[in-house]
Design a protein that fits this description.
Blueprint lengths: L9 E6 L2 E8 L2 E5 H5 L7 H9 L2 H14 L5 H10 L9 H8 L4 E4 L5 E5 H11 L1 H45 L7 H20 L3 H7 L13 H19 L4 H23 L9
Antiparallel strand pairs: 1-2, 2-3, 3-5, 4-5
Helix pairs in contact: 3-4, 6-7, 7-10, 8-11, 10-11
Amino acid sequence: MREDSVSRKNHEIEVLDIAVRIFRIEEADFISLTDIARHRDAERGDYIIQNWMRNRNTIDFLGIWEQLNNPDFNSIEFDGIRNQAGLNSFSLTPKRWVAKTGAIGVVAKTGRYGGTYAHKDIAFEFASWVSVEFKLYLIKEFQRLKEDEQKQLGWDIRRNLAKINYRIHTDAVQAHLIPTELMPQQISIVYANEADVLNMALFGMTAKQWRDVNPGEKGNVRDQANAAQLVCLVNLESLNALLIKEGIEQSVRLKKLNSVAVEQMCILAEDAGVKHLKGGK
């Protein structure tokens, strides 16, 4: 699990007034041991980490974790380190641990997000050694971060699906509603007009009407849509593209789309356990 060969995504959570950085290697979350150590001593984080790593119980834990998760773990070097644990002269740094054993559970980073990071399993173990209270709050904030990520991921998937499906809609508009002699500015008006057909059917207002009502909001009416509305929007785009190809005039399409939107939103609201959610009318 090489740090320089994978994509990273940085996060930061606050635990008992301490900012704790998290970054991702492949699909695994690595938590900053350097930040956790600040709970005990803000100035001597490296010393605290090394003091923890020279502990015999810590070495046993790290070795077992690597054996379970790292097929390239150097067990021979590990045995040599383990045999030295407990001697007064024994010391162990994260860099030495990785260099000797090929460990993947601990990473020493440099630069802007520099410090010692460890896989969440190891980081929670270190946090427990630093402070049981801190560990519990760390787990709580980490879980909250994961829940927020899942919610955002679900919203992004639905939003992207709506964007992809919008291509089907715009292709239908281009093929059947835009004469070849129109200027680019005129073409954009046609696209916007058809987009507002969907907005009226689902949200009960055009894009401009939404901006007038929400002058301080960023984005547009679709960016504020909930999950049920995005699902319904995808269906409306496909249906409107079909109606356009069949040559049905806009006023008739709007009534049909609104009827479908109300019906689908009621069903989606029922499934979500919401009694009064429905499309604009």
